[in-house]
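From the pipeline queue, job 12 of 40. The input is one protein chain; the requested action is below.

Action: predict structure.
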Amino acid sequence: IFCEEQGDYSALVRVIGRVFSSADSLMKSFRKNEPSSANETTDQTAPQLESTGAAPVDAAALPDEFNKFDLCDLNIDLESVRRVYDRLLTNDQAQTALVNALVFLTPNMELDLDYLDVYEANPDYLNIFLIVMENSNLHSPEYLEVALPQFCKAMSKLPVAALARLARLWSVYGLEHIRRIMETFQQVITFTILSNEYDAENLVNEDETVVTATQCLKVVFYASILGGEVDTEHNEEEGDEDEDLDELSLHELLGEDRLYKKRPLLDPLEKELGVRTIDCIKPLIPFEDFVNESINDVVEMDKDFTFFKVNAESKFSFQSCPFILSVITKNQGLYYDNRIRMYSERRLTALYSMVQGQQPNPYLKLKVRRDHIIDDALVRLEMICMENPSDLKKQLFVEFEGEQGVDEGGVSKEFFLLVLEEIFNLDIGMFTYDKDTKLFWFNSSSLENEAQYTLVGIVMGLAIYNNCILDVHFPMVVYRKLMGKKGTFLDLSDSHPVLHQSLKQLLDYTDNVEEDMALTFQISQTDLFGNPVLYDLKEEGDQIPVTNENRQEFVDLYTEYILNKSVERQFKAFKKGFQMVTNESPLKYLFRPEEVELLICGSRKLDFEALEKATEYDGGYSRESEIIKYFWEIVHSFGEEQKRLFLQFTTGTDRAPVGGLGKLKMIITKNGSDTDRLPTSHTCFNALLLPEYASKEKLKERLLKAITYAKGFGML
């Protein structure tokens, strides 16, 4: 106010310089119920920062969510900080002074943290970071060029305990503030990448600004998780995995021990906070908002993979911050991991063969009969699991008995299609099917042994390992359970929507539950033959009525039974098979459950424009052929359901691979001149055999009939 009246802001600029350029002064500023250090460090003629109207805020005035963590951790007056910034940022001279002060402050902070252990000596040092990040103008160009990159470098020097404390404090700030902090770090990353050029020689991994800003963004990521809905309980039991000493010694012999050592991929910050990404039901900020497209465009995943697996101590890998990578980019990293493991298994096989004088077998070879595909696959895979489970890490090579052909991916895809079609046949009774949700679930009364379910798990693991999309329809809870979480009431909405609605109505019921509903802690299920089977959720459950007081317990026990206990035998075998293939993979570390589903089943988002651009032609057709132009006009005119039927008919699944339909290499081949025959397809090669029909109308009629009625007819 004094400066405004005088029209001279030099005194204010001096105050800002003294406070905001000094770590000691800033650390002691804006204390709750204490005089601001601005009052102590300025002379009598200079205006005081607190004259802007900032006043101490009582803890009771803070939002309820601040009670999640110890308020003793928050010893600065946030409202005071924000009001000061609101006033200062309206004045250009004050803004310039803030930028200059931060430029001067941050190198000293970096030195303090590197050599003096200042945080350990005084935890209030964290106040500096809290105060600086309250500046709502940090995203402006004057900060992005020098001040903010230096600040990120200083923040990355904080010990893990300090970063965890920062994440906890930010988690209770509320959505608006935490989103602004997230966007600030994102802009540092994007601005830096767009201002530079990167290639195989000049890696983005070696850009200190990008790396440190990504590490800072990780703190915001975990703050978003802590600030959302979290379930750190309901965890599946993890079995102990014994290390294969012979295999390890061979890897050491080949100089690959660092690449294949079994080590838990646990982020230090995650460990310090005691919360994992998988524990998050709903984050404060959607996971997708943390993905930075600029990084995904320039990161060299082959080099990044090497840093992740071999040079983690000396080189930075963006896979150590998987939240910033898209599924497509992470899938590239997984591809390198899978291929290198396949190559390693070949080397081990060659070494064994030299020692033992046997013929080398570098592939996972499965020779099966079409009419006994489950039995043959089961017997072969069981033998492999007993004799040498590491063979599952080899590249899959399928051969159908009595048929010639080299498996270059197409035969394996056909094998997967046929196995799944038989396994999910309702007559077998391994799975139940919900016609409304179009999803399968484990049949709790199945007569099949565990080996059949283990086979399903192995097949799903092999599909990821061999980069093959499967036509599998499970609810999301299956993937959550595979990643280590038990099914909960929320999962019922996806897997058993009718039951979920009934139980929700029970919880919301306002009248007398015991009198009006007459429920007990005994439930009834239907077995394989349609007969009712009674199950007590508690001992002598039939004698315990469900009341308003115990209905939550009833719902929890009912959910636990349906999603976990009743299918424990089947799911345990299924998970065992899946982990036989993926146990050493970074899959669990890099991907969330919904992303694992995407890897296995593909995406439901269909971009047929991208498919048209990626399609190749053979047998006399080209992009300019009249019938091809007619064909795409017809396909683009299809409704959503017809497009899915077309995709199912042509590729064997109604979903797109990771990266979209543009990654699908479809081939349209000429199959003779005008005829009444329907189009046919080789689903294992994504090939459509299309006769050259005489008119657009006939083409549309024949194509619609083929995709609608011809499943199993003309499909190879």
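Job complete. DSSP finds 33 helices and twelve strands in the chain.
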